[in-house]
Amino acid sequence: LEALQPCTDLTFVLNDGRTVTVSNEFEPVYANNKPTTLEKVTDQVGRLGNTLFMLGSMSIPEGPYMWPASVLNALRRDAVEALENLLITDHETAWAELAVELQDMSSIVAKGKVQYSEPMVSAR
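== Peptidase U32 ==
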């Protein structure tokens, strides 16, 4: 995960290299007293509880910038939504390609029946 420049663009990078970048209109300002620390940003952005994602690493631009928690939370929510949409789109594309391949195999006919002594799937 990487925050780009002293702005509110946030880029999530999946382990396989796919990325999404989300933005917020808030422009960070120089902090008068307490700049937002990497730990604070990591804590806010890393709250991925009920999602498929886990924060591996985080970087932010150097400088005494201040980002409100509300902005970081909004960026996180937008990034999670964008990542989920990316995964769904990629999954749908893969299945659509597979469906085309399976249509080409429509003339294949089974030559016999397979008998199973035990169920293939069990439910509890």
